[in-house]
Design brief:
The protein contains seven helices and six strands; from the N terminus they run H-H-E-H-E-H-H-H-E-E-H-E-E. The strands form three sheets. The chain has a two-stranded parallel ribbon with strand order 1-2. A two-stranded antiparallel ribbon has the order 3-4. Strand 3 and strand 4 form a beta hairpin.
Length: about 150
């Protein structure tokens, strides 16, 4: 999701919109930034208070396995791999996320998205529509998956 939304960075900046990420911990942040996976500023919320406030759920040992093994997750993993993005399994793997888009000044919520599964993300068109801007980027190609394999 971070790499996909980062495709909007130039259009966001041109329209005075800041791209900000909030991570749950310092683990992996340097590697994440050095890898260019996110083009905005990154802040850390180790207490995960903003995650709680925004309704981002936390998985547990019982519900993380089915969520992580689903077809949609395999599609996203295949898409990431095709774009040269390799994941690691360090850090907090149980925290889900989402996206919050607010108007200048923070008084009005334009978009509040909560992941239901680890593969959920907001289409770029939905983000630009919420902001009332246009963008000259193309969303990444979604792989085609069946129960056994994902292909481009």
């Amino acid at each position: 999701m971070a790499t996909e939304v980062s495709k909007l960075e130039k259009d966001l900046k041109a329209n005075g919109v800041a791209l900000i990420g909030i991570g749950p911990e310092e683990t992996g942040v340097k590697e994440f930034k050095d890898g260019g996976f996110f083009k905005g500023d990154i802040y850390i919320d180790e207490k995960k208070q903003c995650y709680k406030d925004l309704g981002f759920k936390r998985y547990n040992a019982v519900n993380v396995i089915p969520a992580a093994m689903g077809k949609k997750v395999r599609e996203i993993a295949s898409k990431a791999s095709a774009e040269g993005i390799q994941g690691n399994f360090s850090g907090d793997l149980l925290q889900s996320g989402g996206m919050l888009v607010v108007a200048k000044g923070g008084e009005k919520v334009l978009l509040h998205f909560v992941q239901k599964t680890p593969a959920d993300n907001v289409p770029l068109e939905e983000i630009t529509k919420a902001l009332g801007i246009s963008a000259n980027v193309q969303a990444g190609e979604k792989p085609q998956c069946n129960e056994d394999v994902c292909t481009r």
